[in-house]
Amino acid sequence: MLYAIMAYDAPNSEEPRRTAHAQHMAHLDKITAAGGKIVLAGPCLAKDSPDRQIAGFFGSLIVAEFASLAAAQEWSDTDPFLIAGVFEKVIVKPFRQVIPQPQP
């Protein structure tokens, strides 16, 4: 099943983000290694700008397949960005993709 992971950045989290970025990216790889798939993932920008350095970060969104809500929550709870203090709040919810229609 798909789950939406909505993470909200903590104030002044730029340095922890830089420090933990490689570990966070490796943590994302664990989703596919466990048999899931990432539908989409990326930062949510604080301003409407194609340049993230100008826009800054507001948080992140990941929509991915996990075996269960508990598995999605466990993955989220062990995300290096959360542990490093990049995220101040993370919400994990079941998600049903409607558009585009998922392929079997």
Largest sheet: 4 strands, antiparallel
Strand order of the largest sheet: 2-3-1-4
What are the segments in which pLDDT stays under 50 over at least 5 consecutive residues? Answer: none
Strand share of the residues? 25-35%
CATH topology call: Alpha-Beta Plaits
Distance between the termini: 13 Å
Q: Per CATH, which architecture?
A: 2-Layer Sandwich
Count of individual helical segments: 4
Would you write up a description of this structure?
The chain is of the alpha+beta class. The protein has one domain (2-95): Alpha-Beta Plaits (2-Layer Sandwich), CATH 3.30.70. The protein is 37% helix and 33% strand. It contains 4 helices and 4 strands; from the N terminus they run βαβαβααβ. The protein has a 4-stranded antiparallel β-sheet. The protein is globular, with a radius of gyration of 14 Å. The chain starts with a strand and ends in a 9-residue tail after the last strand. The model has no long low-confidence stretch (mean pLDDT 92).
List keywords for this structure.
4 strands; Alpha-Beta Plaits; 104 residues; single chain; 4 helices; alpha+beta; 4-stranded antiparallel β-sheet
